[in-house]
């Protein structure tokens, strides 16, 4: 969907069941099929790698479901994260998935990794934002004149590891800004390799699409003077109003060593999503149980405290599941019309 989202500042695979996993019809019968699937007693929660944030959040959710939703258990599964998770939901091999919002949006549009093979998912909750950091060394920023993100044209830039969400987000930013990849000397490096390449003068800048305060950027900032390249006003507008469901975001000065001024950028929200057939009452029960026991999620991801509230659902990159809509309405949260299923 192409739309502008609210800014952050506006906010106050165990046993896999294959039965009943058909997607909602794409005809006028969709409203009848949506939320009408069977109740899954054993839920596969698809997440990401064991070293990332998705996996422990999935583990906390599994515990919450097992302890608070009668007759249901959850099994957390390590996966390749967003793109794989959406495909697992679409095939019925996963039941709940944690995904980056831009991947969910691309899946619904049938673009990027989902070209010709769209998958529509529905949100139960929006979790926390991954913030787009265009990181360089202060000496490089000064020598290259990096004042806006577009200044990286003609330079060496790491978009992230091959097939990563980091790469997908960075490529979407380039596309929204109408910057061709041929205009940049592209590298596909993980975070640690990007930091090392900057230090060894093998790179001019690179992306970290991560939770704010990321340890890798902090570590780099303790050994070298760093700079984060801002997205200037017209650039943020182009990205937020393009595809991907991005929001504007400010990295406050002092978040990282040596970066004393606020940095204007964008963020992509992570969401807990399900397929359209996911049972409506089950969706309501799980959403309710999660927020009633949100402290268990915060125990594994404390930086999410600011965001793990019902009001964050207005930043959903895809429509909200009807079972979850009922929960949010009970909480007095008004769901934007374009997010209603």
TrEMBL record:
Keyword presence, Oxidoreductase: no
InterPro entries: TRAP_TAXI
Signal peptide residue numbers: 1-24
Superkingdom: Bacteria
Keyword Glycosyltransferase: no
Key words of the record: Signal
SUPFAM superfamilies attached to this UniProt entry: Periplasmic binding protein-like II
Pfam families reported for this sequence: NMT1_3 (PF16868)
PANTHER family recorded: SLL1037 PROTEIN
Name used for this protein in its record: TAXI family TRAP transporter solute-binding subunit
Organism taxonomic ancestry: Bacteria, Bacillati, Actinomycetota, Actinomycetes, Streptosporangiales
């Amino acid at each position: 969907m192409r739309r502008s989202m609210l800014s952050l500042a506006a906010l106050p695979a165990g046993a896999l069941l294959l039965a009943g996993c058909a997607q909602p019809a794409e005809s006028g019968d969709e409203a009848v099929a949506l939320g009408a699937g069977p109740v899954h007693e054993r839920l596969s929660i698809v997440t990401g790698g064991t070293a990332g944030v998705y996996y422990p959040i999935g583990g906390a959710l599994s515990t919450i479901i097992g302890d608070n939703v009668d007759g249901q258990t959850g099994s957390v599964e390590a996966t390749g994260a967003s793109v794989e998770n959406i495909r697992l939901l679409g095939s019925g091999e996963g039941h709940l998935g944690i995904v980056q919002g831009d991947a969910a949006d691309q899946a619904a549009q049938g673009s990027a990794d989902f070209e010709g093979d769209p998958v529509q998912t529905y949100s139960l909750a929006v979790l926390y934002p991954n913030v787009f950091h265009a990181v360089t060394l202060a000496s490089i920023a000064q020598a290259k004149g990096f004042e806006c993100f577009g200044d990286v044209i003609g330079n060496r830039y790491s978009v992230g590891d091959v097939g990563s969400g980091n790469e997908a987000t960075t490529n979407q930013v380039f596309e929204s800004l109408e910057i061709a990849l041929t205009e940049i000397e592209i590298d596909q490096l993980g975070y640690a390799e990007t930091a090392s390449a900057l230090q060894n003068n093998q790179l001019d800048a690179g992306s970290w699409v991560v939770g704010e305060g990321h340890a890798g950027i902090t570590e780099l900032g303790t050994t070298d003077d760093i700079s984060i390249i801002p997205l200037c006003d017209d650039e943020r507008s182009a990205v937020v109003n393009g595809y991907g469901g991005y929001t504007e975001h400010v990295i406050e000065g002092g978040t990282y060593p040596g970066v004393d001024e606020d940095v204007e950028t964008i963020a992509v929200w992570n969401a807990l999503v399900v397929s359209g057939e996911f049972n409506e009452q089950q969706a309501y029960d799980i959403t309710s149980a999660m927020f009633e026991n949100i402290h268990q999620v915060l125990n594994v991801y404390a930086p999410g405290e600011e965001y793990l509230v019902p009001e964050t659902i207005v930043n959903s990159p895809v429509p909200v599941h009807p079972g979850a809509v009922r929960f949010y309405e009970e909480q007095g949260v008004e769901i934007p019309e374009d997010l209603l299923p």
